[in-house]
Amino acid sequence: MNIILLGPPGAGKGTQSKGLVERHAMVQLSTGDMLRETRKADTELGRKVADIMDSGGLVSDDIVSAMIDAKLAEMGEGQGAIFDGYPRTAAQAGQLDEILAKHGRALDRVIELEVNEDALVERITGRFSCANCGTLYHDTANPPKVEGVCDACGSTDFKRRPDDNEETVRNRMAEYRAKTAPILPGYEARGIVTRVDGMAGIDEVASAIDRVLA
Ligand code: AMP
Questions:
Q1: How many distinct helices (H) and strands (E) make up the chain?
Q2: Are the C-beta atoms of 6 and 180 separated by less than 8 Å?
Q3: Residue 118's pLDDT band (boundaries 50, 70, 90)?
Q4: How far apart are the first and last CA of the chain?
Q5: Which of 44, 46, 57, 158 is the most exposed place for a label (fewest CB within 10 A)?
Q6: Cβ-contact 131, 151 below 8 angstroms
Q7: Active-site residue among 105, 109, 161, 170?
């Protein structure tokens, strides 16, 4: 199974990907996570990626597609892939088709998480994660059960993404509208798009996605 989770920043792609990994032993391929690793390095590429991410712009198609290609090469044949935050442009969508074919895979489903954009800024600026294990939280919608302690690993160290501030978020949304939303009609023409209400609770959205994959 190869699926794309599509939706604007804050739609819940990361949270739902992590759920799919647990429930279906699929592999999450998040170009955002890969680029967050890249930017940590004190290299020219790391600095360039950091500047682009902090502005809310998009990193070059060739860089992200090469990352996806490399990750798929490491995966077992039967392992399902969840593309999270990729593709984000028409060029990337074309590159993904080529990369999948090269690895003997085909795209099964595109799940679009439909969300109310006004609610997204609040969703995004309230989110944080465990610095140790990466479990995702939100100040009001999904806080840890015990304040300041990660539910999953007990760590008391948390972090926020530097690009989760209002100005960058607005730019990321504009990029989504201008460059990512236009790739949907192509997938619709192939009859593989399912829309899921991304404003529902995390468990409800997860159930809706499971029904799509069943
Ligand atoms: P995300 O974690 O998916 O919200 O991505 C965070 C940031 O990484 C985005 O705002 C972009 O700057 C960059 N990024 C992630 N995925 C891509 C992609 N597929 N193409 C270009 N830039 C990306």
A1: 9, 8
A2: yes
A3: confident
A4: 11
A5: 44
A6: no
A7: 161
Nearest-angstrom CA–CA distance, 5 and 31: 12
Q: CA torsion angle for 25, 39, 126, 141 (degrees, to 10)?
A: 0
Does residue 5 line the site of ligand 1, with CB under 6 A? Answer: no
Compute the distance between CA of residue 62 and CA of residue 95 in angstroms, rounded to an integer.
9
The pLDDT of residue 54 is above 90: yes
The pLDDT of residue 15:
94
Pocket test for ligand 1, best of 59, 69, 171 (most atoms within 8 A of CB): 59
Report, as an integer, the average pLDDT of 5-17. 94
Which residue's CA is the nearest one to ligand 1's atom 14? 32
Nearest-atom index, ligand 1, CA of 168: 10
- Measured in Å, residue 148 CA sits from the centre of ligand 1 at 28
Q: Are 176 and 59 in contact (CB under 8 A)?
A: no
pTM score: 0.90
Q: Is 105 a catalytic residue?
A: no
127 is catalytic: yes
* CA–CA gap between residue 138 and residue 124 (Å, rounded): 8
In this structure, the number of other CB atoms found within 10 A of the CB of residue 12 comes to 23
User: Has 172 been annotated as catalytic?
Assistant: yes
